[in-house]
Design brief:
Elements: H1 21-37, H2 42-79, H3 81-106, H4 109-123, H5 127-130, E1 134-136, H6 143-146, E2 147-150, H7 161-170, H8 180-192, H9 198-204, H10 208-216, H11 219-233, H12 239-266
Antiparallel strand pairs: 1-2
């Protein structure tokens, strides 16, 4: 089994180029395109699609009917009547995303996200990572069918009461004219981004200290990824689809990281450099 320290030489810290918002937007788009182009993933969506769509429609309809106009009236005091309509819509969509995310847990969607994440990694030739956590059938006809029984706890993104509470607490940021909604997205994205690689960190066997240090050195990258993921979750009705395609995009990002690590391992010209250093440059 590959340990976190063994996998830590991804690339030298001094050569690291931070990913931009546009690059993470591209990664999310690639996740969507990847999902559409690979039919072996369709059954994972089909099993949850109808209940998820009905649930999302019910939550959003209820919130817009009963809370949208009161929030428009309240925000008009701070934003003026024109911005109030737009920001109130973001506010309601944010509330709907929070409620829907909680209810999705009841539908065991995280199990589906694990399967999407693992199947994408297998298709990207990262079977060695997935094999540290679950049994695989290499003779199966496609990556989804290769997925066997998990050998350890299989969690894509752990349920975080703190994240939910912070999401609710950050909602009033939308009351701030113009800057409030972007600030809300940044604050929530900052917390949510790293959770999309929770399973990757588990594959590598890293402890909390190692995980936090790695994330801390890439706060901006994970924040942008979290912001893009949250924006997609605000799309009415399609939030469930984008939840799955974001998991695919997250796995594609992991495959990119692993490709760089393996290139470093196979190159005699580049020195091996640990991912974690006591005094990073």
């Amino acid at each position: 089994m590959m340990t976190f320290s063994q996998a830590s030489g991804l690339y030298p810290l001094r050569a690291r180029t931070p990913r931009t918002f546009n690059q993470h937007l591209l990664t999310s788009r690639q996740g969507l395109i990847y999902y559409i182009r690979h039919p072996f993933l369709y059954p994972l969506l089909r099993a949850r699609l109808l209940p998820a769509l009905l649930l999302s429609l019910f939550v959003l309809t209820t919130l817009f009917v009963w809370t949208y106009l009161p929030q428009v009236a309240f925000l008009a005091i701070f934003h003026g009547k024109h911005l109030a309509w737009i920001n109130a819509a973001f506010l309601v969509l944010g509330e709907g995303a929070a409620v829907t995310a909680l209810l999705f847990e009841a539908f065991f969607v995280d199990e589906t996200l694990v399967d999407v994440f693992d199947a994408t990694l297998i298709h990207q030739q990262c079977q060695d990572l997935v094999a540290t956590s679950r049994l695989l059938d290499p003779e199966a006809s496609n990556p989804v069918k290769q997925l066997g029984k998990p050998m350890t706890s299989a969690v894509y993104s752990p349920f975080s009461l703190r994240q939910i509470l912070e999401f609710i607490l950050f909602l009033p940021l939308n009351f701030i004219p113009v800057a409030g909604t972007p600030l809300f997205l940044l604050m929530t994205g900052y917390r949510a981004g790293p959770l999309h690689h929770w399973r990757y960190f588990k594959f590598l066997g890293c402890n909390k200290k190692e995980r936090n240090k790695y994330i801390g050195q890439r706060k901006l990258q994970y924040t942008w990824f979290g912001v893009v993921a949250l924006l997609l979750q605000l799309v009415p009705v399609l939030s469930m689809l984008f939840l799955l395609t974001t998991a695919a995009g997250s796995a594609l990002w992991v495959a990119e990281i692993e490709d760089k690590r393996r290139s470093m391992d196979n190159s005699s010209d580049l020195p091996s450099s640990p991912l974690f250093e006591d005094d990073p440059p």
